[in-house]
Design a protein that fits this description.
The chain is an alpha/beta fold. Helices cover about 40% and strands about 15% of the residues.
């Protein structure tokens, strides 16, 4: 593949002529093809039979009229470009329908259909174009779903069909993995080479609401990775609306050298009646994209999910009304003009500029088999985790790029490079320098490295052939390249020879299409430590070569393997000589170095006389008396460091103990460090009253903790460690307060309660912890609190604010009722509402309308803290009114009910939209009792028994088997709230989890087993049943009498799913099928122990254990569900990985009450009765809450079509 364009097609391509026309037109792509096809209500026959139902790409054969009808409606709307119906027409996707052999035919036919329509509507004034659509497939190569070569071949075959059908350009779209983009670009280029003609290329990536692509790449990484390729348009599509794309588009507008495109969804999808609903109207979409065009220079726009012909018509008006802001873009790719692009390498996750402010580009050298015995040992053992650990160590040493070398005699280097790079790219957020003397090994790494790599290296030792082979790899995969100053005569030793080779390589590389900014020259740091005469000038010649290369070859870089210069010296002497040599090379112009940062010292830490000896050695400043050497700096350096350890040669930075006591106290809180805390407090008491220590230094530390948590730089478990340290510090100081007559008064009083009928208390307790340790008096009323208890607490304590928490949907109704009761009681203090069932709009609109005072949506404990701090400050300055709120304006980041803001939309369009939806639901979508056509009857389930059973004890429920079903992601990120920090790479996050979360998990699992803290028990069984309309009718085990029924909602649109459809219809009023049911619990002991931890102020332990118990209940539910499938004849594959279980890649589904498909929580009551769940201590209270808390129930359906859905 040519990653550059060897001959321009700008003059021959109709599309590019239009795109780069001096009038700078805005080109409009069509809208959502898939959405439009779905609206045609096509049957299975339209697709070619049930097996092919849903394969839109096959419609070009079976229903070409439908496909062209979609094209026609968008062309009528005024779009400039229509996309072929080939989004999923790569052979690897078509294989799911058995159509992989038809890839060429389907793509060619799709292109021909689109071509006919575009030509029909095309005029000289408004030409129409066809874009060959190539979707991301269903596989992510970075995650190992598919190998690079297979994916490239699949894209090649697809591209060949599209070229044969005469598309005007290619759009590689909805890209979720940068490695997939590279495979697509190579496949397309292979097709171009085969047919002898090119087409323009457009790449459109999908940035999720997280701010990155699905595999974690940020927008800077995308630009860095794709800049080397001959792309004409680069932009975004899908996943979000234009508002969420704004920052990404701004970046592209400033730094991308390509034309920028923006093809958003019609806003973020909302789930309404189980159907994705997109809120942006055509006018709203147009108004948002006008800003992108007019201010940011976006030249290609269009619509993705949720956009209709009306949306496209509105966008088409932009091209008549506006001109895009002027941007410099590439029109010819051979030169690879830099424009606004900043040269950089990139990991999978983020870009690293080649030019570092106040530093050289540090290339970590420790993962190099050629120079490290440790690496060779780990390779021999195939200890990939150990090698990844070495790579992670380079991150901590502040390396910018990671050198990876697996050259080791006797091993399969290509396999080793593949295995190692596959793991490193997802575990380490550093770009890679793939280092080998064999190009095949470098390519093995390139095929699994999604980022932009640097190849180390090429030279002329074997003549031109190998030199150009590595350049070809750099061009094909979009990499930088290191060129060594070696030619057919060997390694250059003099500056003159080094520069001559560099100039030869410069001409060859630039003419080949590698720009100067991607060339790193290695002028070779040869040893000056051998004592051999011909080695004496190696250092000074290299420094002079660096100076000349940088001055005579503009734009290039210079890199050195610095440590070679000191080969053979003692470790302490090497550190010093390497550091001085590195400094002098940087002074001469070197801007990158392969070093171990931990083995480099700043000059300020090297004694002046040691520096001088090193410089004398580098410059060969020996002194002679006649023929006798009277001063040899090599001998002097060896003598200076004789017997000196590397530890003694280095100096260490300040520790906690070195800080002033004021800073030390604050840092103890921030670090959550209790070791040495009492000593620091005693020292502080010598100078400050105890109350001042609390209110100044300790609370300052907690304030920093809050800021770090809010910005995503600190995870919740470590916040709780800080809170525990704060608690310990205050407890230590309280006796001193009594002696000194001081008293710590609370900033404000704050009762908090989980509302009536709700037993969930983790969120409430976290708020208690954070506010208590920030100077507030929290009155924690507990769970299931009636409004009377909350009012009594407010009146008794004269509380300044009230907080209510709830996890369940029904809790939100209680909150509104409570607010009305507060009004009746004459209470109007601010109320903070929090919990998973709430939304900002519900609080700020619905709840605000009910209450006479002010309400706040408490997103998390630190939102509550920020509000309370602002509230107390405003009250002290007389700028707070209970009914009006903040009189000087609400502080940034807070939103009170009744105010206009991003979360408040009273009487706005959202309300109108919502009302409209409600009207449609009630008027035009009547409830049906008919079975869904998508769910035909199947054979009845045949379990091994009928009736109910209970299981308990390790013999019946081996805890190790249950642990195997534990969802770590849900535990770590959900329960423990150890979420990926803003700006943190995916591999750094995973490394953090392995280092911090996994040991905690293993410790608690071990303790839970030893102390029997988790006591799993299960009640489950099988009952005769049958479907009657939307009901599942349940019978006695012998089928003689009806026990009861579950009445379940049906979807009003789409497939009209209802859980009842997953069972056979009643047979003459009697049972015809079997209903599996289950109820599981982790036991009352888990709840009791969690509460003891909280009462003992063991905050982080409380969080860890409570979260583990909840998630283990879910694991037990999975374990039980797997047992049900097995007993009914549908066992899972023995090697089914947990991720497949969690992704429901088994037969059937499990439905828990309270979710949209079966929303009536009270239905669990009869289920518990039938199963005899009281035998395992599982009950339901009058508020329909399960006890113990760590419990769950479910209905199980084993129908092949059973899946999760919303009704």
């Amino acid at each position: 593949m040519q990653a550059v364009q060897t001959e321009s097609i700008t003059e021959t391509s109709r599309f590019l002529k239009r795109l780069h026309d001096p009038s700078r037109p805005v080109l409009v792509f069509d809208g959502a093809t898939g959405t439009s096809l779905q609206q045609m209500d096509l049957s299975a026959d339209d697709f070619g039979g049930e097996v092919l139902e849903g394969c839109n790409e096959n419609l070009v054969v079976t229903r070409p009229d439908a496909v062209q009808a979609v094209h026609r409606q968008f062309l009528e709307a005024g779009c400039d470009v229509i996309e072929t119906d080939t989004f999923g027409a790569a052979s690897v996707v078509l294989a799911e329908y058995g159509l992989e052999e038809q890839a060429f035919v389907l793509n060619k036919r799709a292109a021909e259909l689109a071509r006919e329509m575009a030509d029909e509507y095309s005029t000289a004034e408004k030409p129409r174009f066809v874009a060959g659509s190539m979707g991301p497939t269903t596989k992510l190569p970075t995650l190992g779903h598919i190998d690079f070569d297979t994916l490239r071949t699949s894209f090649r075959d697809q591209a060949a069909g599209l070229v044969a059908g005469n598309v005007d350009l290619f759009i590689i779209e909805t890209c979720q993995d940068v490695l997939q983009i590279k495979a697509a670009l190579q496949g397309v280029e292979d097709a171009f080479e085969a047919c002898g003609e090119r087409r323009p290329l457009m790449v459109s990536v999908t940035m999720e609401t997280t701010g990155t692509m699905l595999v974690g790449s940020d927008i800077a990484a995308v630009v860095s990775i794709l800049e080397p390729f001959p792309i004409d348009v680069l932009g975004l599509n899908c996943a979000t609306g234009p508002e969420q794309m704004k920052e990404h588009i701004k970046y592209l507008a400033e730094y991308s050298p390509f034309v920028v495109s923006c093809i958003p969804n019609a806003g973020l999808p909302e789930n309404i009646g189980g159907v994705a609903h997109y809120r942006l109207t055509p006018l709203e979409l147009k108004m948002q994209l006008m800003h992108f065009v007019e201010d940011l220079g976006v030249q290609v726009i269009g619509g993705c999910c949720g956009t209709t012909p009306a949306h496209i018509q509105a966008l088409s008006e932009i091209s008549d009304e506006l001109k895009p802001a002027v941007r410099d873009v590439r029109t010819h790719h051979l030169e690879r003009q830099q424009l606004g692009y900043e040269p950089a390498a990139s990991s999978l996750y983020g870009a690293t500029p080649y030019f570092q402010d106040n530093s050289f580009l540090i290339i970590g050298e420790r993962l190099n088999a050629s120079g490290s015995r440790k690496v060779r040992e780990l390779l021999n053992e195939e200890d990939w985790d150990g090698l990844v650990g070495l790579a992670r160590g380079q991150v901590k040493e502040n390396a910018h790029v990671l050198d990876v070398n697996v050259d080791y005699v006797g091993r399969d280097g290509e396999k080793d490079m593949h295995e190692l790079v596959t793991r490193v790219v997802t575990n380490v957020n550093l770009p890679l320098m793939l280092d080998s003397t064999e190009w095949q090994k470098m390519e093995a790494g390139l095929k699994v490295a999604g980022g932009k790599c640097i190849l180390n290296s090429t030279n002329y030792e074997d003549g031109d052939e190998r030199f150009f082979k590595v350049l070809e790899l750099a061009r094909r995969y979009g990499a930088g390249v290191v060129i060594g100053t070696i030619d057919e005569e060997g390694m250059a030793r003099t500056a003159e020879k080094k520069v001559a080779i560099a100039k030869r390589a410069y001409r060859d590389a630039v003419e080949f299409g590698i720009p100067a900014r991607e060339i790193f020259y290695d002028p070779l740091a040869l040893p000056i430590s051998t004592g051999i005469e011909e080695d004496r000038r190696n250092g000074i010649e290299t420094i002079e070569a660096i100076r000349r290369i940088r001055s005579e070859l503009p734009g290039v870089h210079v890199v050195l393997g610095v440590s070679n210069v000191s080969f053979g010296l003692s470790p302490a002497a090497r550190i010093t000589l390497n550091s001085v040599f590195l400094h002098d090379c940087c002074e001469a112009g070197m801007d990158a170095a392969i070093v171990s940062p931990a083995k480099i010292l700043p000059l300020i830490k090297i004694e002046a006389d040691h520096q001088q000896v090193c410089r004398d050695l580098i410059s060969d400043s020996r002194r002679f008396d006649g023929d006798v050497c009277v001063y040899d700096p090599l001998t002097q350096l060896t003598t200076l460091f004789e017997g000196v350890s590397t530890k003694e040669a280095r100096s260490s930075g300040p520790s906690l103990a070195d800080l002033p006591v004021e800073e030390r106290l604050k840092q103890h809180i921030i670090d959550g460090e209790r070791i040495g805390l009492e000593e620091a407090l005693n020292e502080g008491l010598e100078s400050y009253p105890p109350l001042d220590i609390v209110n100044t230094f300790l609370l300052d530390g907690m304030k920093v903790v809050g800021e770090l948590f809010g910005s995503g730089q600190m995870q919740l478990p470590f916040v709780l460690q800080s809170a525990e340290t704060m608690k310990a510090a205050v407890a230590f100081l309280e006796p001193h307060m009594e002696k000194s007559g001081g008293e710590r008064s609370a900033k404000a009083k704050f009762p908090i309660a989980t509302v009536k009928g709700d037993v969930h208390d983790i969120g409430k307790n976290l708020v208690d912890i954070i506010l208590t340790n920030n100077g507030y008096q929290v009155i924690n009323l507990g769970i299931k609190q009636d409004v009377g208890a909350i009012i009594a607490a407010q009146q008794e304590h004269q509380a300044d604010c009230i907080a209510m928490s709830g996890l369940l949907v029904k809790s939100t109704a209680f909150m509104k009722d409570n607010l009305a009761a507060f009004n009746d009681a004459g209470i109007n203090v601010p109320v903070v509402l929090g919990g998973a069932a709430l939304t900002p709009r519900f609080v700020n609109k619905d709840c605000s309308e009910v209450y006479n005072g002010k309400v706040l949506y408490g997103r998390d404990a630190f939102t509550d803290l920020r509000f309370m701090d602002a509230f107390v400050e405003a009250r002290q300055s007389d700028t707070w009114d209970n009914e009006q709120g903040f009189l000087n304006g609400t502080p940034e980041g807070l939103s009170l009910g009744g105010e206009s803001g991003p979360h408040s939309d009273p009487a706005g369009e959202a309300s109108k939209s919502s009302d409209a939806v409600k009207e449609v639901k009630t008027v035009s979508m009547p409830v049906s009792l008919d079975r869904s056509e998508a769910v035909p009857e199947e054979e009845a389930v045949k379990p091994s028994f009928l009736g109910a059973k209970v299981l308990h004890g390790d013999s019946e429920i081996p805890l190790k088997e249950v642990i195997a079903y534990l969802d770590r992601q849900a535990l770590f990120a959900g329960q423990w709230q150890m979420r990926k920090a803003k700006g943190q790479s995916r591999e750094d996050y995973e490394a953090d989890l392995q280092a911090r979360a996994e040991p905690v998990l293993q410790s608690w699992l071990e303790r839970s087993v030893e102390e029997q803290l988790l006591q799993p028990a299960v009640a489950y069984g099988y009952y005769p049943c049958g479907r009657e309309g939307n009901d599942v009718v349940v019978f006695d085990p012998d089928g003689s009498g009806e026990l009861g029924r579950f009445s379940l909602p049906r979807q009003r649109g789409g497939n009209r799913y209802c859980i009842s459809d997953f069972y056979r219809d009643l047979n003459a009023g009697g049972p015809s099928d079997v209903l599996p049911m289950q109820a599981v619990t982790m036991g009352e002991q888990a709840s009791v122990f969690a509460q003891k931890l909280f009462e003992a102020d063991s905050y982080s332990d409380y969080l860890f254990f409570h979260g583990l118990a909840v998630q283990m209940a879910e694991a037990l539910a999975e374990w039980t569900h797997a047992r049900v499938r097995r007993e009914c004849g549908f066992p899972d594959a023995s090697d089914m990985p947990l991720r497949d279980v969690l992704a429901q890649r088994y037969r059937g589904s499990r439905y828990s009450f309270g979710y949209p498909a079966c929303p009536n929580v009270a239905d669990s009551r009869q289920q518990l009765l039938w199963l005899g769940a009281d035998r395992v201590g599982l009950t339901m209270d009058e508020g329909d809450q399960l006890h113990p808390e760590q419990s769950t129930t479910a209905l199980v359906a084993l129908h092949s079509k059973a899946r999760y859905f919303s009704a």
